[in-house]
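User: Predict the structure for this protein chain, please.
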Amino acid sequence: MNQWRDRGKRLLRLIEHIVLGVIAFSTVIAIGVEILSMVQARSVTIADLLYLFIYLEVLAMVSIYLDSGKLPLNIPLYIAIVALARYLMLDMKSIDTWRMLGVAGATFLIALTVLVMRYGRARFPDNDEHA
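Assistant: Here is the predicted structure, written as structure tokens:
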């Protein structure tokens, strides 16, 4: 029984690494496409920079996950904040007041979540060496 469990764990770990490789590879391709579009347009906009920050955070998340085996919850929250900020900046003229308030409220709640998590880590540190 332990033999099957070990094989199952190894298979899942292999699948996990393959999917992480696909995510990293796809992100690098997206970075290349974004840089190519900036070169072709001969301009760099805030939207382009925010996209690059999002891609960079995805690569950092993959790297941290490969190093520690744990998914850092703060990085997806940072990605969400940047994505919402990008949405507000680009579509501000075309969205109505309630949607703008909703996006701003969601951004505030995510930022508050990050603050609570940081406070919790500082106040109640994890004794795990990978934390």
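The chain has two domains: 1-71, 73-131.
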